[in-house]
Structure formats: C-alpha cells, structure tokens
Amino acid sequence: MKYFHKNIKKSEELTYLRRIEKIHPHKMIFYLAMFGSTLIISFLLISFHFSKPAESNIALNFRFPKIYLLNTLVLLFSVFVISRVKMYYNSDDAGSMRRSLALTMSASFLFMLMQLAGVVQLLGNQLFMAGEIIKSYTFFMLTFHFMLHAVGMILCSLAFSKYRVVEKDPVIALILFTNPYEKVKIGTIAEFWYFISIIWLIIYSYMHFSF
After folding, report:
1. What are the distances in angstroms from CA 147 to CA 74, 141, 142, 176?
2. Which of 56, 142, 194, 209 is most buried, judging by how many CB atoms fall within 10 Å of its CB?
3. CA torsion 6→10→13→15, rounded to 10°?
C-alpha cells in the first residue's frame, strides 16, 4: 500500500513538471516578472504598515484623494474590454480585436492621466507632504504601479499596430490566427493586464481603508 502511494505521488510530480515544461519560455519570463513585482509590492505594503505608526497623527487626519476611486473604475472597465480580446482572437475577428485594444489603450491613457492628477493633489496636500514615511512609501508604490501600467500600455500598442495591418491583409491574418505562439502572446497580454489591475486594487484598498 505504501509503495502504491509513493508511485501516485511520483506520477503527480512528473505531471506537474510536464505542465511547467509546456509553458512557453516568454510566458515563463512574464510569470517570473509578475512574481518579482508581487514581492516588491508586498515588501512596500508590509514595510509601510509597520512604519506608519511613527506618523499616526498624519495618518488619522489624511484622506486618500477621491480621484483614485474614479481611476479604479476606469481600470476595471479596461479589464472588461481586454478580456474580450482573446475571445475575438479565437473567432478570427481582427477588426474587433483592434477596436478592443484601442478602447483598452484609451482607458489606460485616461487611467494614467488620472494617476498624475492624483499625484498633483497629493503634492498640494500640506498634511501629506509633512509625513516623510507616508509620502515616501505612497510615491514608491504609485510610481512602481505606473511603470507596470506603462509596460502594459506598450504591449497593447504593439498588438494594436499588428492587428491594424492584419485587418487589411488576409494572408497575414491567416498566418497569425493559426500561429500557436500568437495565441500565447495575446493570452499573456490579457493576464498581465489582470495582474496590474489586481496590484492596483490591493494598493488602492490599503490606502483607502488605512486613512
């Protein structure tokens, strides 16, 4: 019986390893990058949480700008739009893909503008600026997420440029829609977008309920 359980465990481990081997190298790099980004954000949030009591008077009276709530709604809308891109790819609909990517980029650009507007409000808040710890950690987290979002924006822009050409050329469309690697890239862009959205929701929720 013991030998039987060992064989089951070994077969499960082999199956898990085979699944990892099937992951495309570029996708694996993305997963590692997302894991590293998660560690950085986790470190910043934990450090901020334990450092914040040193400026408890500021923390009790400071309020996170309301524009970040609108920002969050815009980001959630972009998540909904980009979730449809993979569906359009599976149905060989280059036109709908292009339009969805364009709408995602528009929402993303609006998100980034609102992020900057929120930073301007923070810079104009004397209470916030008086707290060195709160100010430093907040700007670190906002800047880091802004950089992640910029990467996502670049990926969407590259995909948009490609599918604008594909829409006009049926030969290129046939090549791309039958290419397994292209499906991996589209899926990776969507997954990365979900990731940066989750990261933002964690940052926003913590900042909103902490002040």
Report:
1. 17, 10, 9, 29
2. 142
3. -130
The arrangement of secondary structure in 2-210, i.e. its CATH architecture, is Up-down Bundle (1.20)
Instruction: Collapse the DSSP code of 23 into the 3-class scheme (helix H, G, I; strand E, B; otherwise coil) and give the result.
Output: coil
| DSSP string covering 87-127 | HHHHTT-HHHHHHHHHHHHHHHHHHHHHHHHHHHHHHT-HH
Tell me, what's the pLDDT at 25? 75
Are the C-beta atoms of 49 and 134 separated by less than 8 Å?
A: no
Gap between the Cα atoms of 87 and 109, Å rounded: 23
Mark 160-182 as b/e (b = at least 16 C-beta within 10 Å): bebbeebbeeeeebeebbeeeeb
Tokens describing residue 33: 């990058």
Tokens of 189: 């862009």
- Of these ranges, 49-58, 124-133, 188-197, the one predicted with the greatest mean pLDDT is 188-197
Following DSSP, what letter does each residue of 172-184 receive, concatenated?
A: HHHHHHT-HHHHH
